[in-house]
TrEMBL record:
It comes from the Bacteria. Residues 211-284 form the Insertion element IS402-like domain. Residues 1-20 are annotated as: Disordered. This is Putative transposase of IS4/5 family DUF4096. InterPro entries: IS402-like_dom, Transposase_6_like. Pfam families: DUF4096. The lineage of its organism: Bacteria, Bacillati, Actinomycetota, Actinomycetes, Micrococcales.
Length: 295
């Protein structure tokens, strides 16, 4: 049962570790999670996710039956492409109620629904590269913390066995019996009293680690090639900009939600766009993926 007591914010024993989420963001996470849960119930007993072998062999999407690979089989002349676009328009209309948009693979015009159609699986090599780049500490995540979370419905739940620095954006409310967004979380375990000196901030996702000195040494020549004397306001630290962009991509947040420790989100966004436009960003991610593989 949920703990219905208010947060002890005015108590002298209140713990310092507090996470806040804008209510609009919590409601958005809640609506997505509820839609995904409804889709999981609809798919009960059915596995819509292709194996990588099936995907590589050209099997269509199990959810909608539309092509994932092999667009050439549909034709690449102007008339065939017009037919594909018309079919996409009809597909979008049929899935308008999903409210999550559509996606399509690179070099393939056939569209799929974000809610209804699972993404194609990664290859084994891609999984290894992504794990090394984005989850360097995934095997050693501390799950010892206890949190009290306030939900969008104003009910309160107590969560045990969670990360000391992060709470999932949605939680199943035992009173409402539906998934709700988390608007506030307070860490209430004893370890928070003794060892957690963090402030009243959201903090970084625990599975993201900033670039190490070694990783930065691999890529700094890419971004410092353009660094030189310039007039006006000093340029933002480019290492922080790269870290901010990697964090944004890893967590799926918007630029506006970038933690304050990365500095101005507007500056990070502007500099990231400059890196993309100059092709430096592609070189950065490619270098990290190639150099950060398991030995």
């Amino acid at each position: 049962m949920p703990d219905s007591q208010p947060f002890p914010e005015d108590s002298p024993t209140a713990l310092p570790r507090v996470l806040h989420t804008p209510r609009s963001r919590a409601l958005l996470s809640e609506s997505w999670a509820q839609a995904e849960e409804a889709k999981r119930r609809e798919w009960a007993g059915i596995d819509p996710q292709l194996t990588y072998e099936g995907y590589a062999a050209g099997e269509p999407c199990r959810a909608c039956g539309r092509a994932l690979l092999g667009e050439a089989d549909l034709g690449t002349d102007e008339e065939s492409l017009a037919l594909i676009d018309a079919d996409n328009a009809e597909f979008r209309a049929e899935h308008a109620a999903c409210n999550m948009g559509v996606w399509r693979l690179q070099d393939n015009r056939v569209e799929h629904c974000h809610l209804c159609c699972p993404f194609p699986p990664l290859s084994p090599a891609q999984r290894d590269e992504l794990r090394q780049l984005l989850y360097p500490s995934s095997l050693n995540i501390d799950r010892s913390a206890t949190w009290r979370v306030e939900l969008t419905c104003q009910h309160v739940e107590t969560l045990a066995g969670h990360s000391p620095r992060y709470v999932e954006p949605t939680v199943q409310c035992t009173e409402c019996a539906v998934i709700r967004g988390v608007v506030k979380a307070v860490r209430i375990d004893d370890q928070a009293k003794d060892g957690d000196d963090s402030s009243d901030t959201e903090g970084l996702h625990p599975e993201y680690q900033r670039l190490t000195d070694d990783q930065w040494s691999w890529i700094k020549h890419i971004v410092h090639a353009e660094e030189g004397p310039r007039r006006g306001r000093p340029r933002a630290d480019v290492r922080t900009i790269v870290d901010a962009a990697l964090y944004k991509i890893r967590t799926g947040i918007t630029w506006r939600e970038l933690p304050a420790e990365f500095g101005s989100w507007q500056t990070a966004l502007r500099r990231h766009r400059q890196l993309i436009a100059s092709s430096q960003w592609d070189e950065i991610t490619r270098t990290l993926a190639e150099r950060d593989l398991p030995e």
